[in-house]
Specification:
Length: 264
Amino acid sequence: MSHDKSKRPEDHRTTSPKHNGTQNESTKRHVYVEPGVEVDFVQDLKDRHNTEQRETTTHNKKQLLWTKVTAALVLIYAGLTWWQGCSTSTAARAARDAADVASRTMKTDQRAWMKINATQFGMPVKDAPYEANLTVVNTGKTPAHHVFLRTVVKIINNEEDMQFGYAPCISSITGAIFPSETSEPHTATTLELRNGEAVPKNLSSDEVNWLETGKTFLVIYSEVDYRDIFGTNHWSRMCAWANFSPSGASTARQCVAYNSVDDN
């Protein structure tokens, strides 16, 4: 028995060139930019770039301006700080100087002041030493401590330069002299060195004659050293002279200049 097998027509897909072309057109697309449009696009980029540059330049200028302003403010602040520091330093120095002056003034006013007084001169005598008595008085407001006095009596030739040496000399020391108090009399005489020791020197007849005629004159000079209550050391000097001639002329300018005190 034969069966007619109806055959289905096979589904053969044929590829037509037209169909393929449609597919290609759907997958491959080309963009065509007209020349005018391309020029506008490039110009737009340039404009954007220029705008960005202008904005950047403006920003930089502003930043530079603020930097300058900040630097100026810093300089002004530094100047003010320096001026204030100088003013403070000057004020502190002035205050310190004022305090020093006040302290010095107070000490000068309150310290001890020692004055040497020589008694009246006597006439020279042949074959005897010439003697002079001295005292020290405290004219200050507080005690003077460790008072050391040394004195020289000698004959000086007129027109001769005076040398104020203290070897040999007569010396004495006192523990303390209180305000307005006068020391015990201090006797000084003409001295000479004999066997290395200071001993009283008797005046010869020639020496007495020279004193009486004005060829020479007699000088007494002394120095007192002491310490005040503030622990500062001081000194005071005295020089006196006597001319026994009728003319009374003596070259005693150096003796006058010797009278002085310290400035401690």
